[in-house]
Amino acid sequence: MTSSAFRLILSDILVTSRDILADVAVDVAKVAAAVELRAGQIEEIIRPADSELRGESPPLGQEGQKMPETAEQATRATVEETKAKRNDIWQRLENESPDRIKETVLKRIGQVRPLLTKYQHIYSDFLDH
Domain residues for 35? Predict the structure, then answer.
């Protein structure tokens, strides 16, 4: 294999790897957006009402008892969603990435092979002299 063919294959591997990393970055951004949304919901649940900030407390048995339970549920849901999305990303990386790189390399080798065969006699004549 010539050095130019090797450079083409190496370039394809690097470009495909960068493309895969870009896909991962998009997935991470989606997870971060979901976490941000849930964090906003938790903030709304936990943040004291204006009346509480003024020192007025709600009657016992109303919002005060529900708040920790609701915040805990929202936090657990956020953690579970994040874990599920993280697992999906890793699963896709493990399954798709090597195949995508392999397909790219094989495609490039398929393009280079006929050229090598076509110009083989030129290379051998040049090396013989």
Answer: 3-49+65-128
Residue-wise pLDDT tens for the chain (129 aa)?
A: 567 777 888 888 888 888 888 888 888 888 888 888 888 887 887 777 777 777 776 655 555 555 666 777 777 887 888 888 888 888 877 777 777 777 877 787 777 777 667 666 666 666 665
Q: Per the domain annotation, does 41 fall within a domain?
A: yes
Single pTM value for the model = 0.53
Residue type, 102: K
Helix 63-128 / helix 3-46 crossing angle, nearest 10 deg: 180
DSSP 8-state class, residue 6: H
In a domain? residue 56: no
Supply the Cα-derived Rg of the chain in whole angstroms. 29
